[in-house]
Design goal:
The structure is a homodimer of 230-residue chains.
Chain A: E1 2-6, H1 10-22, E2 26-30, H2 33-43, E3 47-51, H3 59-69, E4 74-78, H4 83-91, E5 96-99, H5 104-121, E6 127-130, E7 133-136, E8 141-144, E9 150-151, H6 154-165, E10 170-172, H7 173-181, H8 188-202, E11 212-215, E12 219-222
Helix pairs in contact in A: 2-3, 3-7, 6-7, 6-8
Chain B binds a DNA duplex (30 and 30 nucleotides) through helix 6 and helix 8.
Chain lengths: 230, 230
DNA sequence: GTTCCGTGTTACCATGTTGTTACCGCGCCA
DNA sequence: TGGCGCGGTAACAACATGGTAACACGGAAC
């Protein structure tokens, strides 16, 4: 179980590392926001302990970037104990928020609680099936009920995954851009390109999509689900 | 999204209920440990907010019993702020632990964080229904009782939303202009344009509106409601 | 090096959306 | 009776958006 600790106070970082190692976790560390993102991408840890007050890139920004790409559990640390700060942190996607100073043992307990919940929930399978369409994330392939598998590019997988994970819901253009390219990444032109390319691959008739619906002025939605609205 | 609140302090229980209801949750309550278990079995809520200091059956015991049967998320409340207490609570299977006193808004944020992790879709329903007309804000569509959905433009959605949210009331021309275009945005000509276009889309007979009524010299009102709001 | 693939860029067209102007009819009031 | 303000209707221009296509670039594979 690998944990990334992002904390610029070296002494505190050491204390946390020590405690968590003793609790049986694999620990990697970063001391500023940019390094954190690099480490995260390279190691893909199972959980991130994230200080908010960081040099180079703010902790909230780091959280946003990680959330744009993955669902890695995040526990925030901060001296800010105000309600607004905590609510903001949680709404940005954190799983827990601890106010400094805190006791290492409580951190361990909270990490375990979050990981327990993730373990109970997360499907380790790299496959995702909605309606008649199946996406295999590890092989970069989509398959349509008995038909031959279709090879997808990494970006196409990201897009299709985002849409399928939120099947039936409308995802905004900007949100999708963030999800696929990360904040500061793409633009509308590239998104429509990507949607077009994906459609030509997976739609039987791209002019009349049965999977990816356009909601003009808003975004796109994955359909073909029995959506079970009610 | 149904939440069971277990809290013996009736005043606090009411405050929490009120806040969570306002946040859009379905609330059921219990005021002692045994009642909590009964309620839990009968209603199988999506999450439990559990005070630890309870009559009849201790909160920790309640937690244990629930955990023995199911994986329902649990957020513990307690005046005990010691590390041992928190660690014990989390190790017993709680997903989060909040020390009293706490702010309602933080509780809402933490509930959302846990539910998000569990994978619950808590889309606060982007739909708005008044009388026989239904507006889907996320899809920019209006639907009239069984008939096909009608695609609306963003501005039309803004206008219709304003009218429907205040169904039965008269909204002034200037107020509507502000709502739709923002201060410094539109003029009367554009509003009447927009009303006209909206009417041609949603009214069966635009010359005799059944939804959008004109109040000359004042503004517009959404009708077709059994108004009688309770 | 050459080829191929994934990606980014530019361009074009059709359509949809919004802003503008104009005209009509009606009730009001001098 | 004749302006005047108001609201409904219409036509049109300006602009934004989405789909399509062709091409350029860079890195990986051969």
């Amino acid at each position: 179980m690998k944990i990334l600790i992002v904390e610029d106070d070296l002494a505190l970082s050491d204390v946390i590392s020590f405690t968590l190692r003793r609790a049986g976790f694999d620990i990697i560390t970063a001391h500023d926001g940019l390094a954190a993102l690099t480490m995260w991408e390279q190691h893909l840890p199972d959980l991130v302990v994230l200080d908010l007050n960081l040099p180079k890139l703010d902790g909230l920004a780091v959280c946003k970037r990680i959330r744009a790409q993955a669902d890695t559990p995040i526990i925030m640390l901060s001296v800010r104990s105000s309600d607004e700060a905590i609510v903001q942190g949680l709404e940005l996607g954190a799983d827990d928020y601890m106010v400094k100073p805190f006791s290492p043992s409580q951190l361990v307990a909270r990490i375990r609680a979050v990981l327990r919940r993730v373990g109970a929930t997360l499907t380790p399978s790299s496959e995702l099936m909605v309606g008649t369409l199946q996406l295999d994330r590890s092989r970069n392939e989509a398959q349509c009920l008995g038909q031959a598998a279709i090879r997808l590019t990494p970006l196409e997988v990201r897009l299709l995954e985002a849409l399928m994970l939120n099947a039936g819901q409308v995802l905004s253009t900007d949100g999708l851009i963030d999800t696929v390219w990360g904040v500061e990444g793409g633009d509308r032109t590239m998104l429509k390109q990507l949607v077009y390319r994906l459609r030509t691959k997976i739609e039987p008739d791209p002019t009349q999509p049965i999977y990816i619906e356009t909601i003009p002025g808003v975004g796109y939605a994955f359909i073909n689900a029995k959506s079970a609205k009610g």
